[in-house]
Amino acid sequence: MHKRVLRSACRMCHGVCQVLVHLEDGRVVKVTGDPDSPTSRGYICPKGRASPELLYHPDRVLHPLRRAGERGENRWERISWDDALDEMARRLAAIKEESGPEYFAMLQGTGRPYTGYTTRFANAFGTPNFTGVAHLCYLPRWLVSLYTLGQLPICDIYGFGGEYPACIVLWGCDIARSGASDGMCGGMFQRALRKADKVIVVDPRRIGAAEKADHWLQLRPGSDGALALAMINTIITEGLVDRDFVDNYTVGYEPLAEHAAPFTPEWAAPITRLDPEEIRAAARTYATISPACMQWGNAVDMSACNVQTARSLLILRALTGNIDRPGGDVLWVPPAGVKQRSVFMNLEVPGLQFRPPEAASREVDGGRYPVCPITHPPTLWRSMVEGDPYRIRAMWIVGSNPLLTMTDPRRTERALRLLEYLVVSDFFLTPTAQLADLVLPAATWLEQEDVVNLHKIWCVLARVKVAQVGEARDDREVILDLAHRLGLWEAFPWKSWREHLDWALEETGVDFDGFCELGIIQGEMRYRKYREQGFATASGKFEIYSSVLESMGVSPLPVYREPPLSPLSRPELCGDYPLILTTGAKIREFFHSEGRQIASLRDKHPDPLVEIHPETAASLDIGEGDWVWVETPRDRIRMRARLFDGIAPDVVSAEHAWWFPEEEPPEYGWRRSNVNLLFGKMEFDPDSGSESLRSALCRVYKSPDPQVSRGKEREGHDEKPNGE
Ligand SMILES: Nc1nc2c(c(=O)[nH]1)N[C@H]1C(S)=C(S)[C@@H](COP(=O)(O)OP(=O)(O)OC[C@H]3O[C@@H](n4cnc5c(=O)[nH]c(N)nc54)[C@H](O)[C@@H]3O)O[C@H]1N2
Ligand SMILES: Nc1nc2c(c(=O)[nH]1)N[C@H]1C(S)=C(S)[C@@H](COP(=O)(O)OP(=O)(O)OC[C@H]3O[C@@H](n4cnc5c(=O)[nH]c(N)nc54)[C@H](O)[C@@H]3O)O[C@H]1N2
Ligand code: SF4
Ligand SMILES: [Mo]
After folding, report:
1. Rounded CA separation 50/53 (Å)
2. What angle do CA 195, 589, 51 make, to 5 degrees?
3. Distance, CA 138 to ligand 4 centroid (Å)?
4. Block means of pLDDT (10 residues each) for the chain, length 724 residues?
5. How remote is the CA of residue 437 from the centroid of ligand 2, in Å?
């Protein structure tokens, strides 16, 4: 038997870990952590370990498939890649010619290897209708960071500057459990948590890190913005501000001090349900123990106050002088010479924030949300159903499962069914892919080569191709081929993906093969760069007061907005819907809607769960593991109860993105436990268009076991009459 071990970079999530791929006679048998990796030091999570199961999964789509029956009938005809891409080029060119490029929309999921190429394609084709999940994940935080200090600050947990964070704030982020987020490795983060003197956790759920934390602020879901303002207020009124940093490197401190005066801990207490002294104590710890860093997460994003809350959290870092200091919140220095494909580092990458104003006016949302980096998805789906201001004719979904991951999925389904032409690139026939006219099989990370750089911008990692199953292709090769068929050579001058990789590395002195020998190229970290070069903002300073946001009609100083469906904003609903619902705390074993067909992962986490306090459960006659309905004014779904005393008695937390690949196509049970059915017709964040998925109102009650009553449940589980 011929055994080989190759070093590569995992991509079962956003990808941060270097791993060892074990091959026997050319077959991948195992993936393990790489103990020599500077980014992950041997860490690997269950998803990473399950990579070979994904690669060789019998349900994978291995050839392009063209719809053979009615839409959604699950009848397919195998066609060649040439036929598939010729057809696609012909259909898209015709739509562009007849109606204009904006009648074609592109949708991508969360950041993935193809990120950058998808936006480039949409721009080159000329459509402003590029959409995805970016309005409620990461991008608003990243955009306000650009406006405020020129770059997204990251926790300095690697100790390049000889110091580790002495105080760590985990704000709505459970990275140690998920395995990784925002380009940070959960394993490395756990080491940093162990080294830190003080840990502050801001989370309505008692996550692992909260158990040993010095301060666990169990706030009411959705009230983060109020807590952040009260911490700003405390730090200012108690004179804990880092004067050197604030006086020399920021603008707008005086207006902030005046603006924040009313936002006392006493003001925040009834909003957040925290004791004012608890807020003061945490603010003091944060402001006096240095260096301190703040790992913020998704909870900041999915709110109708996300831009403003993110601004407050950036300002807290500046007031305490933690920006770009060793062990603080730093601005990474990328490796010299590597042409960064990631829009997060290279603003030359076309797409996203470079929507020219004339493009915005052709977008279906008319550019209504100034800090929304994409065409606002709920507005897009609405326009696709209503044909207003015009009806999109074709869509290409690359690596997303919007029926599970986006709100109001019944409308999404209608919108997709109304399309003339839908192409989906995926590994599997998902509920979304089942609605396509053409399904393109995507290569998994084990079948790709890459200079990995999405978030991890202090280094780039080598990913080597170790396998090829069926005719699956790297999405970027597909985009290149299609772009060339459409004559878009200017935007895509590379003949192949490999040629792109050699080009990206050309100034480093190694080609892709040489890079794979190295495995990693690191940047040379420097700190307090603002002292010589200032910040990359309009004023050259850290903008506590943001005139850029002001010019966009966004509040230049942070404010608090109550979630649209909460006990404070809609008290009249609390009788019928007495519980506060938060959704989507990430599941260790799965990446969003993925992995439900991977046996080793599903065995560990077989069912969709909703966490509920034992006392509340008892009062509703609900026991551990019972099936329950979770119901909002919008709709209801079924999940299994997990009793958890680390959550307030009137708060429940439901998992997201559940479907059941083992059930019948084309639906695979996507309507049973899909938490996004519970959301729709909400007020959006006026700045970014984000949605309040971390705070809504619901009720929970017992349901029959869907395994027993499946047939009946299908019929009985129609849209609620008040649903639309
Ligand atoms: N209610 C609620 N909803 C949420 C969230 C929440 O917390 N609460 N979280 C949100 C967040 S943070 C995000 S980022 C989104 C995620 O939203 P999505 O990105 O839509 O989620 P995924 O389930 O990961 O869907 C990805 C699909 O792409 C396929 N895929 C994976 N990798 C590749 C690839 O390289 N190429 C191709 N072509 N296909 C690939 C997978 O098989 C899967 O079917 O969901 C959001 N939805
Ligand atoms: N295993 C796994 N890892 C992943 C992913 C995955 O699906 N699975 N997804 C990836 C993606 S795309 C993302 S964006 C990241 C997200 O990763 P994180 O940023 O860690 O986000 P979540 O896990 O969604 O939520 C983090 C915490 O927010 C808490 N929370 C809920 N409501 C509130 C609230 O109102 N306020 C506060 N302060 N906290 C609240 C939850 O209890 C949870 O502990 O993870 C990435 N990593
Ligand atoms: S955390 Fe992400 S990159 Fe690391 S092993 Fe898990 S899936 Fe792979
Ligand atoms: Mo995300």
Report:
1. 5
2. 100
3. 7
4. 96 94 98 97 98 98 98 97 98 97 96 90 91 93 95 95 98 96 94 98 98 97 98 98 98 98 98 98 98 97 97 98 98 91 56 54 86 93 96 98 98 98 98 98 98 88 97 98 95 94 94 96 96 96 96 96 97 97 98 98 98 98 98 97 98 98 97 98 95 98 74 44 38
5. 34
- How many of the other CB atoms lie within 10 Å of CB of 546? 25
Cα of 21 to ligand 3 centre, how many Å?
Answer: 13
Which atom, in ligand 3's list, is nearest to the CA of 186?
1
Spatial contact of 480 and 474, defined as CB atoms under 8 Å apart: no
Choose the residue to mutate in 110, 405, 432 for probing ligand 1, maximizing ligand atoms within 8 Å of C-beta.
405
For the chain, domains (ranges, CATH) are 3-55 (2.20.25.90), 65-137+338-456+459-491 (3.40.50.740), 153-330+530-550 (3.40.228.10), 571-709 (2.40.40.20)
Distance 651 CA to ligand 1 centre (A): 25
**Intra-chain end-to-end CA distance of the chain, in Å:** 61
Question: In whole angstroms, what is the distance from residue 171 CA to residue 151 CA?
Answer: 19
Ligand nearest 133 Cα, by number?
1
Nearest CA to 550 among 147, 27, 108, 115?
A: 147
Ligand 3 site: residues with CB under 6 angstroms? 10, 12-13, 15-17, 44-45, 47-48, 179-180, 186
Among 296, 256, 262, 264, which Cα is nearest to 280's? 264
Q: How far is CA 352 from CA 355, 356, 357, in A?
A: 6, 10, 12
Rounded (to 5) percent helix, strand, coil in the chain: 35, 15, 50
